[in-house]
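Q: I'm building a small set of examples for a reading group on sequence design. Run inverse folding on the following structure and report the sequence directly after it, with nothing in between.
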């Protein structure tokens, strides 16, 4: 029954996506990469959420909450503030330029050299950091959720390789043959499933804790047994154990991810109008503020259950006899849901995995086709040739990321934190040159190239150099990110005094979409920021 409902729901989403996208234009660059600039607010919000809400959150954050409690909500709740900045500041500028990629915007500001560098950085990072993490966490979740090693009679690592290959093949089909429209539509269907399924996990997990008592009494039971479980700021030794990291590395990573990361913001470039884009981004911000109900609370409940249920705790152990955070969510789902619903939710999780995977493939194809193939390899390419180059790129990236997934992440302790540290290597330097370029109109491309290369080197040294010197000097890796970011702004400011454009940068209107803003956007944005601050202050 579990496997039957799994394949049934997965198949229904595929058929529905084909039905709603059949006959739609995917033969032109704008049709394939930007859905013909036809996306409305609800579809944009759904696609933003599902591209983000994959196993990296379901598995990583619930595993983090199991160990550290509510404080890991920073990655979700702080995203609400970042999305407000995206809607009010970044999106109007992106849509005014009529771009399809962030490197395109950087070319407009700095020149072709910076576009080439950032295109390469994005593609390599997606291929060897983001996609491998999505695939590996997917394999861990589905393996424990469906108890696949026992069902298939395979070893755990063999099962992981099998799931990675399955996700890579199916996810590639969406991205290669359907383009951004198929990605966005399938995201919306899977988004509804994830909201329903994720809410069910929270409900049943709390019901497991409460027993015959009222449901909400579970919160009091958990808090009584673990007074720090619902603190917004963690204890000493935890990942986010004070207010300071919220305003250094966490905020920087969030700003880059939601405001300048091609994989995420590409669907906003496909907005019908600026107003539609702002509605979609702000709706997504609201759901991010509420996301801990699905992405954090089950992990906190799982910690309590593990203290009272020896069988459940044993299901979380790895081969070394230690609790593996990657097993928490899948084991919890298998414990609290009946088999039919377990199959449904496994299909929902698969949908969220595919959503992120095919979105990143589409973004990689967009970056390569428009930033490399059309500009450097074949400037006179036809629309068909450009689209075909994107399909080939998607296939290559899918294969290489599938091979890298178990090699990069298997055996790593705290894979979500490890993943974020890898992201920081390229997030921080690229965010620095983008922000500087928006506020400074005279610094040239050479200043940006030097700053970006220096930043990549500094972040790589801080992330991979042995000895623990970074945490000794800066206390936290997040403080190191903040220090590097400020240093890069200072460096480019100094370089910009000598390396100047022939004339100041002036952004022109490409006339791609109606730039009339959504009038309530500033008020809605302010309300969301106040809500985030209130949550932190009340739960501190």
């Amino acid at each position: 029954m579990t496997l039957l409902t799994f394949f049934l729901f997965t198949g229904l989403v595929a058929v529905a996506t084909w039905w709603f996208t059949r006959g739609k234009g995917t033969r032109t660059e704008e049709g394939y990469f930007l859905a013909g600039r036809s996306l409305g607010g609800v579809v944009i919000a759904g696609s933003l959420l599902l591209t983000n809400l994959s196993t990296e959150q379901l598995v990583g954050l619930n595993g983090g909450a199991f160990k550290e409690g509510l404080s890991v909500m920073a990655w979700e709740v702080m995203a609400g503030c970042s999305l407000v900045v995206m809607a009010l500041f970044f999106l109007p500028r992106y849509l005014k330029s009529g771009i399809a990629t962030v490197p395109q915007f950087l070319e407009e500001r700095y020149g072709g050299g910076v576009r080439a560098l950032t295109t390469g950085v994005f593609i390599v990072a997606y291929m060897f950091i983001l996609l491998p993490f999505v695939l590996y966490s997917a394999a861990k979740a589905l393996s424990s959720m469906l108890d696949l090693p026992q069902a298939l009679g395979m070893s755990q690592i063999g099962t992981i390789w099998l799931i990675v290959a399955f996700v890579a093949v199916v996810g590639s089909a969406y991205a290669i043959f359907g383009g951004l429209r198929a990605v966005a539509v399938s995201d919306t269907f899977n988004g509804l499933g994830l909201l329903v399924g994720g809410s069910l996990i929270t409900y049943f997990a709390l019901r497991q804790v409460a027993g015959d008592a009222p449901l909400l009494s579970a919160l009091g039971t958990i808090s009584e047994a673990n007074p720090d479980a619902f603190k917004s700021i963690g204890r000493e030794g935890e990942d986010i154990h004070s207010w300071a990291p919220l305003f250094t590395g966490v905020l920087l990573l969030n700003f880059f991810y939601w405001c300048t990361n091609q994989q995420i913001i590409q669907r906003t470039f496909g907005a019908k109008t600026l107003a539609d884009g702002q509605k979609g981004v702000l709706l997504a911000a609201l759901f991010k503020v509420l996301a801990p109900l699905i992405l954090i609370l089950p992990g906190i409940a799982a910690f309590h259950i593990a203290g009272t249920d020896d069988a459940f705790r044993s299901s979380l152990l790895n081969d070394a006899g230690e609790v593996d955070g990657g097993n928490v969510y899948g084991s919890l789902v298998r414990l609290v849901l009946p088999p039919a619903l377990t199959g449904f939710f496994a299909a929902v999780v698969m949908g969220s995995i595919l959503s992120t995977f095919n979105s990143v493939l589409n973004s990689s194809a967009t970056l390569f086709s428009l930033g490399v193939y059309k500009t450097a390899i074949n400037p006179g390419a036809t629309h068909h040739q450009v689209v075909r180059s994107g399909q080939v790129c998607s296939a290559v990236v899918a294969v290489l990321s599938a091979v890298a997934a178990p090699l990069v992440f298997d055996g790593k302790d705290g894979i979500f934190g490890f993943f974020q540290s890898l992201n920081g290597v390229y997030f921080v330097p690229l965010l620095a040159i983008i922000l500087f370029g928006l506020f400074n109109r005279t610094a040239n491309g050479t200043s940006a190239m030097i700053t970006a290369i220096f930043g990549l080197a500094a972040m790589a040294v801080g992330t991979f150099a042995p000895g623990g010197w970074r945490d000794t000097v800066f206390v936290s890796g997040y403080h190191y990110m903040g220090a590097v970011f400020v240093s890069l702004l200072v460096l480019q400011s100094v370089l910009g005094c000598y390396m100047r454009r022939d004339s100041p940068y002036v952004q022109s209107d490409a006339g791609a979409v109606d730039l009339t803003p959504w009038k309530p956007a500033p008020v809605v944005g302010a309300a969301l920021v106040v809500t985030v601050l209130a949550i932190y202050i009340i739960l501190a």
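The domain at 2-509+516-539 is CATH 1.20.1730.10 (Sodium/glucose cotransporter).
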